[in-house]
Amino acid sequence: MEVADCVYKLTETIIDFMVDHDSLTCMTILQLYNLVSQIQNIITPLLLRTHLNGYQKECLLDVQAVLLSTQRHLHRWNESRSRRFHAILPPRSATRELNENRELLILRHASLMAAVQVATHIKGYNIISPTPSIRQTVENKSVLNLKMKVKLADADQVSLFEADQFWKCHYGDEVSAQVS
Fold it and tell me: Residue 155 belongs to what domain range?
């Protein structure tokens, strides 16, 4: 649980920094903002859990490492952007680092989603038996369906008399079988 809290607070810090420093005008920063917001939404339900499995903790630690790197690169990017010398364009190295962080966050985001959605600890099966009234209703319907099928099968069968009459009408009384 502590890991989830730390990662959640880190996402809040990064989002606040981006909003406070008006850095959402850059496309890379905007994409990072969206990714961090999505990660924050994924982590929110984990804050309510009392236990996280090993894979979930591992994914959270990976996300935390990338978020810390992103935070460090955001500060570096913002500092270089605020200097007079780089007033128009920030240095390429800071932007390249942020792009690398974005790519890593995309990968960690996918693994975190899988870790949250996949249940790795199956503790058993829940067998739910129907109540006696439901069981009785199902049995009655089964018996009725069986009776209806028998009646329909009897109605569909052609009697021997009807077949004999048909044969006499169309082919006559005597038919000889020829063997070749």
Answer: 135-171
